[in-house]
Structure prediction request, 103 residues.
Amino acid sequence: MIRRILTVVVLCVSLAVPALAAKGSGVRKFQKTLGLTSDQTTQLQSLLTERDRQLAALNAAGKGKGQKKEARAIKEQFRSSFRAILTPEQAERFAQRTEGKKK
Prediction:
């Protein structure tokens, strides 16, 4: 029984570490491309944590009608909240960056 629990724990940690590293690299990318202050970086990390928590809860609820729509709404709320912490110049660079990805 304990061996199974340890296996599950090791599996969960091995899956979580790359996700955390990816989130950290995303934050560093925003810091560099947008010139985020340390205050903005802290706020961004909080926004990402909340977004990820909401998406995980949505995924845990199972596949249902409207799940994609709800996930899209969560992501749009994140983008909106993120834009709110940016200066006008940073917001413009962010808009250019996101427009480039849509093409």
